[in-house]
Amino acid sequence: MNRRIFPLLAVVVVLGLGYSPVAAQTSGGSTYSSLNIGDLQPTTSVAGQGLAGVESAMPMPGNLNSLNPAGWADLRSVTLAAGMNFQQYQVSTASQSLYQNSTRLQGFSVGFPFSETHGITAAILFRPYSTVNYRSQLTQRIPIAGTDTALSTITKQGSGGVSQAVIGSSFKPIEQLTVGAGLDWYFGAIESRSNVEFDNSSLNPATYLTSDQYRGVGGRFGMQFRPVEGLQLGATMQTSATLNRVRLLINNSLDASGQIVDTTGTDTADLSVPQRLTVGVSYQMGRSVLGTEFSTQDWGNSAMTSATAATRYGLAYQYTASESINAEGFDRWTFRAGASYEDTYYRTPNGAISQLGFSLGVGFPLAAYNRLNANPAMDVALQFGTRGTTDNGLTREAFGKLSVELSLSELWFLKVRR
Description:
By secondary structure, this protein is mainly β.
């Protein structure tokens, strides 16, 4: 083992324990993330994002699968990875549009392959399950007393999200079958703020803050089956979970004499996260891999008034790096592309929201391979697409997302030949 990898492992663990999906230096993002618990993240590895989220049945020997724990058996070296994400949104209504962007941590992961023969890999992942990042402003008249109204400017903004800490392992009972399981611990906070300012200077401004803390436990199970050479079937089931929500409500305003009026209240509630089923298939021809995937998750009974059943379809292509130790240049690179269509879990009074997306990705080493040292590598993914519509008073969002993940891998557990 290379001792230089231990400080990096400590950094990943410490950052993971303090991990939060709150965006850094954010000025806004998706308006729809103000609904429910925000934007759901089907996949968080940058390799998976380059494949448009298609991971359940895809072979990924150099990356830790962020969806299917059975896929962890592909890992051949101890691997540490951490990623960042930059996203740009164009948010449009029927009459206007604006640009918003944010940068955030994408997650941390570490995988320990103990046995290639039996496919045993232990893994720990810290990943966003949902993200909230929005900012909007509107001008409208609101009632103040009796039948009187006043012109006001209302600014709404929110940040945070629900995260997952996943710990589990994979196992290969027979050569054609790999299975995996993991424990999912949900945690996180979502903060929503509304500021109200009046054009009439005699009316005092007010601020309304809602802070939600979430905790819960779930699990995931996965399998990958290879009935014939080149063909791989994959399935992942994330179990249902109950999220305990503790809500803090704070209302700040000024009375007629200019004194601050601060009203605070708390309440608790349980929210249901429904199980999510994902199935996929891939076929490998030499270094080329073609994969497709379908997932479904019914949020209709989650007690969230703006949630409905969600379905997602994905298609991906991967050109895998050569495994030859003599490979040079682009032969050591992995290229990815994908497309997806999703009926999201967002339900508005004016209609449901669908999303179409495309992705490109690449993974490449940052140094020559060395069995005795930690080998750095980088994965880059570019996602772009659109969702929603400007019809019926809705919002259309065009987005672009750039994700970068750095990883270190090293052989630790070697058989001693005698």
